[in-house]
Each structure stands twice: as C-alpha cells, then as structure tokens.
Design brief:
globular; Quinone Oxidoreductase, Chain A, domain 1; about 20% strand; 9 helices; seven-stranded mixed beta sheet
C-alpha cells in the first residue's frame, strides 16, 4: 500500500496528492474516505498516527453534537467552532510518529520519535481540541497536527496500543487528585467506564483505601476490582451511602461521579454524609436542579473536574510503562478506518446507563490504526 505523501515545512510538495485516508464525521454519520493533508504552522508538529483509542465522546457527537456546540457557544467552550455539516476527523487518544514541523518551530523531538500529547492545540494562533476541530484532525486519520510544546515522548518498549491508553487513563488520574484524597478517606467511584477505572487506579497509586466501586454491569465491576477497588457493588442491591458491612461498617466520604446523567448530583447531595467531598467528572449536558439547602446543611464540598493536564499524562505514561497500572485488559478490537462506523455504533456513552444498555459488555477501548483499511 502506497504511503501518503506529506506536507513538509508548511509547504506541500508539488507531487503531493493533497489527501490522506481517514474516518471522519459529517452530518451525523461516520464516513471513510480522504481529507486534505494537514499542513503544520509554526509550533506545530506533523505526526503520522500509529494507534488511537475510541472514546464515547466521539459517539456522543453523532447523536447530540449540536447540543455540545450550542452549549460551548452559550457558556464558552472548545467546541464552539465546529460545524457538523463540515467533515472533522475525531480521535484524541493517540500515539504517533513525528514526521516534521512547521517553519520556525523549535523542533524539540527528532523525526521518528513516537509521541502522544494532551489533545490541545495552542500553537500557530490556534486554540482547539485535537479531534474536535476542522483545523486539527484527530487520530482516526493518517496524519495529525500536534502542539510541539505538548509533545510527550513514548518510552522505548511501550507498545502503541498501550500508549494510546495514556490519555484516557490521565483523565481519571486528574479526577482522582481533584478530590484531594488523604489518609482516612473511604472513596466511592460511581461508574466504571474508562474514567472511573482511571480514578480507581489513581486512588490506589496514592494509597487510598478502601475504594468502593459501583456500576450496574458485572463486567465493569470485575474490571474495577482488577484496577484496585476493594469491593464493587450493584447500586440496585446495596445502599452506597450507609455503613457498608464489608468495610466493617464504614461510610464513604469521598465520592466520584463519572456517569454524567441528569439527577446524579442532586441524588448524591441527598444521600452523602456530613462533610463529604464530591468530585463531578461525568459531563451532563442538561440543566441540573439541586437543593443548596441540603448541601449547605451537610457542609458538602463539590469539585468539578475537567480534563487531564501534562502532569497527569506524564504519570499515566510512567505508570503504564513500569507496570504499576495494567491497562492491557482495557483493549478490545484493533481495527482499520473501515471498521470505525460499526465499532462506534456498538459503543455506550454512559457509565451506569442500565443493565440493558448497548455496549454494556463492550471493551473499555477499541483501538483504531488508520494505516489499516
């Protein structure tokens, strides 16, 4: 298979085809075809994608993308510039190989270096989320543009598919530290998708115990225990906020919400114990009603978590590479761009969406290699 010709130093060569293969989203559907060559500007690295995880957020854009865009335009957010009638290449959990840089760049890493990054582009006058931008295509395509100041070199020996798990793990690690865990805390992790599993791994790295995981699905509960939870409960069968017999009658006081469904925060406030700390990691796209009276009377602390930062990416990479966190069980199918539409159709975006949810038994992450058809 002929390798795509690439743009060098900001100027496509005369013989360039001007297009690379990708799976892209347009008008609410996944398509497979070609998109224009990305051309790096100053401070931008041109990278050939090796492997990219499939996140539920990409599936969310198929069904409710306009709502995300509208909310970004109303409240400020990184998705305000997206136009769903125009193609964009998703994929923000990537590892790839540096090919070149835009003119005038610092060039911090040599060509051929494998890298990942926080999926943010700030160089060249841009401010975009890679994979949710018309200018910065994501890892479901053969070529990407990355911010040279964000590049993180992948250690030799860390295989591509495991390296693609650095970003989703880093999100959970960021959420975990936002709760300011400390000795004596008993943590509850609601929702055991990738973010919840990352929270559990982060808490375990910090020596926090006990950790209680909660999810409707037995497969996810088993994964939670494998990641370091002391017990995993079905919330339909056990009261999560009362003294837990398996923990010697202890009650949880540090609560991580990773579901993102309307009503979750209100329900947690109503059930949480006095002086509890709550970390909201799930993205809810609907207005949430709550009783401030209840939260004040209990003196609750509510922290809203965001995305990962460079320190979280670094920790995730080192922990995967040295074996402290095993993300290999997260990996499912390895597919080419032609399999993206079917794989996304089988995914579920909710962490505790109910026992009959589509994709409930799906792997934590399928992985796309855009070099494959």
């Amino acid at each position: 298979m002929e390798e795509p010709r690439i743009a060098r130093r900001g100027h496509p060569p005369a013989e360039s085809t001007g297009a690379v293969r990708a799976a892209y989203i347009q008008n609410g559907a996944v398509h497979t075809g070609t998109v224009d060559d990305p051309v790096p500007a100053k401070g931008q690295a041109l990278v050939r994608t090796h492997s990219c995880g499939m996140c539920a957020s990409e599936t969310h854009f198929l069904h409710a993308g306009q709502n995300v865009i509208d909310l970004s335009r109303q409240f400020g957010g990184p998705y305000a510039g997206l136009d769903l009638t125009r193609a964009f290449v998703p994929g923000h959990e990537y590892v790839g190989e540096v090919l070149d840089y835009g003119p005038g760049s610092r060039r911090p890493l040599r060509a051929g270096t494998r890298v990942t990054s926080v999926p943010i582009m700030r160089a060249g006058g841009a401010h975009a989320v890679i994979g949710f931008s018309h200018e910065c295509p994501g890892g479901f395509g053969e070529l990407m543009l990355l911010d040279e100041d964000m590049l993180l070199e992948i250690p030799a020996g860390l295989e591509d598919d495991l390296a693609a798990m650095i970003e989703p793990l880093a999100v959970g690690l960021e959420h975990a530290r936002r709760g300011r865990p400390q000795a004596g805390d008993a943590a509850l992790v609601l929702g055991c998708g990738a973010i919840g599993l990352g929270v559990i791994a982060g808490l375990r790295l910090m020596g926090i115990a006990p950790i209680v995981a909660a999810d409707y699905h037995p497969e996810r509960r088993a994964q939670a225990v494998a990641m370091g939870a002391d017990i995993a409960l079905d919330p339909r069968e056990t009261s999560l906020y009362e003294p837990i017999a398996a923990l010697g009658g202890r009650r949880v006081n540090l609560i991580y919400e990773n579901v993102g469904q309307k009503g979750m925060l209100s329900a947690i406030i109503g059930a949480a114990p006095f002086d509890a700390r709550i970390v909201m990691g799930g993205y809810c796209m609907e207005a949430e009603a709550l009783f401030v009276f209840a939260a004040q009377n209990k003196r609750l602390n509510i922290q809203f978590a965001g995305g990962e930062e460079p320190q979280d990416m670094e920790l995730a990479m080192r922990a995967i590479a040295d074996g402290r966190i095993d993300v290999r069980p997260w990996l499912g199918a390895r597919i080419g761009i032609g399999g993206v539409a079917e794989a996304m159709a089988g995914m579920s975006g909710a962490g505790m969406s109910g026992p009959g949810a589509p994709g409930a038994g799906a792997p934590v992450r399928n992985v796309v290699d855009p070099r494959l058809l």
